[in-house]
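Posting here for the record, re: flavin mononucleotide.
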Amino acid sequence: MDIRGFVESLRGCRELLEIPDEVDGRFELAVLTDLMCKHEGPGLLFSRVKGSNISLATNLLGSDRRMANALGHDNLEAFGQWLTAALAGVKGDSSAQRLRLLLRSVEREQKPSTCFIKQQLNLDLLPELRFWPAEQRSFFTLAVVITSAPDSNIQNYGLYRVGIVDRKRFTLNLLPGSGAGRHLEQWRSMGKSMPVAILLGADPALIFAAAAPLPPDFSEEHFSAFINQGKIQSCHCQTVPLSCPISAQIIIEGWVDTESVMDEGPFGCYTGDYGGSNVCPLVEISGLSMVSEPLIPLTLAGPLPMEDCWIARANLEIIRARLRVDIPEINSIEMPLEAAFYGLYFVTCIDPLVSVDELSQRMRSLDYLARMKTLILLHNTDDFVSETNWRVLLKNIPTAQIWQDGAADLGMLMNTHPAKLQHDARIIEKMKNRLRIAATESTPLKGQ
Ligand SMILES: Cc1cc2nc3c(=O)[nH]c(=O)nc-3n(C[C@H](O)[C@H](O)[C@H](O)COP(=O)(O)O)c2cc1C
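Prediction output follows.
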């Protein structure tokens, strides 16, 4: 399902609130989104964004149900059961092997390039965005970035933050170890620029796959088609040697000069503080296209819980399904929503003699748990973690049941610090009022 179809389906099940009045992409959109994320509200559609004729949508994946709907299921547990059953239905020693076998059945349909010469995008039409007061530029936070290694036509699809520098250049925030970061190293060692395609408004299953815990060098494009139970439909880009799914709303093509980097400036993070990298590679834009009335989904980063916690919850379902194959002795694994980006997991194991250190070592050897920071081994499944008891539980756990990586920031998670990221109180009041009006004018939403 493409992003427009998904938005319409959310409207149909009253999981979407359309804001009819003009909204400023600088702070107003973020304030409205923050309010929704913190109150389990619906997805938001902004069809009148100041200075732009592009529609924006936020919080589309911000609940168990919406995240699951994007993956073709009613709830995330059902998605996990579906994947577990699919992996159980094929043979293989590891979950990675089984996933590869599963995706063999996915077909590709190569479309003529003309089908995606949609219309030329004028970069001035992109809305100006500011999520938190100290940010200096617009960021696209659900952009799917396509790259490939110099000697291979296997493409990597990664969900990375993209910052607008000017009409010709974008920054890419590639964390160490990211697929695109690895590709960039390979292009650099050959002294060549790296081709890249950035999709804004990719289909939701591809957005999810681009951030999912999948094996390295595994096709996220195939995985999203497998989730959608459909074919891959792609065509060649116009100015770079890459192929693109035809369902994206906007495609930005370009080249990364492997020698130049740039500070992307402050960016509000889940820690409640500003982050942002000073070594972001720069993309020189070589081609742009878009559908006639594009829609760009965005997500707001900031103090948790936010929409991305639900992406992390769906990732947990993939981890569960894969662990059943890779370490079947682990009979349950949990991650509180609020700890989604701290690499904290609680597990129970059927082997009563296993130590937390032994278990953590085995888990960290798996591609999808290599970045685990803290592991808590629980002996009693009755004590299992819930969204409300996990902090208390953690305080009372004997140290023999805790494993922590040197970089773990558990203290930060346990001692809630006041967030530095704050919006102007006047904008908050104004937006609360705007929400009341939008909610009264729309058909009643779920929970009202
Ligand atoms: C909302 C969201 C934003 C993300 N932003 C970034 C980012 O800016 N840079 C990055 O390297 N990873 C980011 N990630 C994590 C990657 O998408 C994730 O690690 C993914 O597996 C990367 O794919 P790769 O292994 O092909 O690099 C983000 C994840 C989410 C859910």
